[in-house]
Specification:
Helices cover 19% and strands 39% of the residues. It has 389 residues and is an alpha+beta fold. The strands form 6 sheets. Strands 1-12-11-26-27-13 form a 6-stranded antiparallel beta sheet, with no helix packed on it. The protein has a 6-stranded mixed barrel with strand order 2-3-10-4-9-8. The termini are far apart. It binds 2-acetamido-2-deoxy-beta-D-glucopyranose (3 copies).
């Protein structure tokens, strides 16, 4: 009996030491904060997810071209969002007009109503959403996924003019710049002492996740190909040296002279290239597609560029891949199943071209082209990475 008790005691001590050593090695810690990826809602208009602001759950647009957390106040003049509206938590703080924080972040000293003292605000035009907004800045807490009660700066809209499209809060994950505030994501990762890295993983139907503060090996297969990240103008962009395609003896190509950069925009549903390369691409697809003498197919290609086509009337597998060549020596291939997308109307499926003509000299890589990819934004090394899902 004594012998048995002795064995059990040794066993228990060993268990205890084992657990302790696991803890020292950080295995438990890793499990605790490895965090699932922030789940995306599968919207095809923009990346969308949910976070907790104060104590309420909000749908947010995850926007790589902004770096604020923007949410409507309950009493907002002209706002187009649905409830919930921003309510300060118990720990909120206003930002004083004369504080250094206000000088670096805000551009106004506002008095949104006659009862409260003036406080730091921010006024801006959100190009993408066509909305002019006036906001009050607060320090308050948010929770993203497993990361709870993180202090960030919140821009609460009290007045909106123009634009009916801003129907959700916005979580800016754009690059930081010397004159702009830390983005909410940057504050979160700084607070948690994690690297300023995130990655967007999307499947064909826009479902996926965002890894925060790390590269998640579960979200990709093979290698991650990295290229230089530009943060010019407060947006992430990449510059392929050459874009090319080859089909039925026809060649499409464009260089950096034609397309200087692709802005990576998670709030753009479609992608855009400037006028001249766009016309060239259209001509290439038309002449290569019609060369086979297939007149029926030929006429359909024409209408593809103007509108969407009944999916039963065109086979996208007959179209070529478009290859983006990068300085670092890798190629990002965009197959037709990605640059075309389908929409459903009245139980009919239509196929539409997802690369359109840009209104300016910038090309935009929207979420349609981020499908079936894991796109890594490594702000530590100023690199953007692409890998297959
Ligand atoms: C680019 O395309 C043109 C034809 O449009 C072709 O003559 C030229 O060789 C191509 N350049 C490269 C590098 O492929
Ligand atoms: C799409 O094509 C199918 C099959 O050819 C046809 O039955 C249907 O009416 C078409 N729909 C439209 C809206 O043209
Ligand atoms: C990475 O680069 C290699 C070599 O060009 C290529 O085969 C692979 O498809 C690339 N992966 C992605 C996701 O671009």
């Amino acid at each position: 009996m004594i012998y048995k008790k002795w064995i059990i005691l040794v066993f228990l001590i060993n268990c205890f030491l084992f657990v302790q050593s696991l803890d020292k090695k950080g295995i438990y810690n890793d499990n605790r904060d490895s965090g699932k990826s922030l789940v995306l809602d599968g919207k095809s208009d923009y990346l969308s997810s949910s976070i907790i602001i104060g104590f309420d759950t909000f749908k947010v647009i995850i926007d790589t071209t902004l770096n604020y957390l923007i949410v409507a106040e309950r009493k907002c003049d002209g706002c187009t969002q649905y409830p919930p509206y921003y309510r300060e938590s118990q720990v909120f703080e206003n930002i004083q007009c004369d504080s250094p924080a206000c000088h670096s972040i805000g551009n106004t000293c506002d008095k949104p109503n006659k009862y409260d003292p003036p406080t730091c605000g921010y006024e801006t035009k959100l190009q993408q959403y066509g909305a002019n907004i006036k906001t009050i800045l607060y320090r308050d807490i948010i929770s993203i996924d497993d990361f709870k009660n993180i202090p960030v700066i919140i821009s609460a809209i009290y007045e909106q003019s123009n634009g009916l499209s801003l129907n959700s809060a916005i979580l800016g994950v754009g690059p930081s710049c010397p004159t702009c505030p830390p983005s909410p994501l940057q504050s979160l990762l700084y607070t948690l002492k994690k690297p300023y890295i995130f990655g967007i993983s999307l499947d064909k139907n826009y479902f996926g996740g965002i890894s925060i503060g790390k590269i998640d090996p579960l979200l990709y297969t093979g290698v991650i190909n990295y290229t230089t990240m530009s943060k010019r103008d407060g947006v992430y962009s990449v510059s392929p040296i050459f874009i090319g395609s080859h089909w039925n003896d026809q060649i499409y190509n464009s260089t950096r002279n034609d397309i200087k950069r692709f802005i990576i925009s998670s709030s753009s549903s479609l992608s855009y290239i400037p006028t001249s390369p766009y016309k060239q691409l259209k001509q290439f697809i038309k002449s290569a597609g019609c060369k086979s003498g297939d007149l029926d197919f030929c006429s359909k290609i024409d209408s593809l560029f103007n509108s969407c086509i009944n999916s039963s009337q065109i086979s996208i597998s007959r179209f070529p891949d478009i290859d983006l060549y990068f300085e670092e020596g890798f190629i990002l291939t965009i197959p037709p199943k990605i640059y075309f997308h389908s929409i459903s109307r009245n139980n009919q499926v239509f196929i539409c071209m997802g690369i359109l003509e840009s209104t300016d000299a910038n090309a935009i890589l929207g979420i349609n082209l981020m499908r079936e990819l894991y796109t890594v934004f490594d702000n530590e090394k100023t690199l953007i990475g692409f890998s297959r899902k």
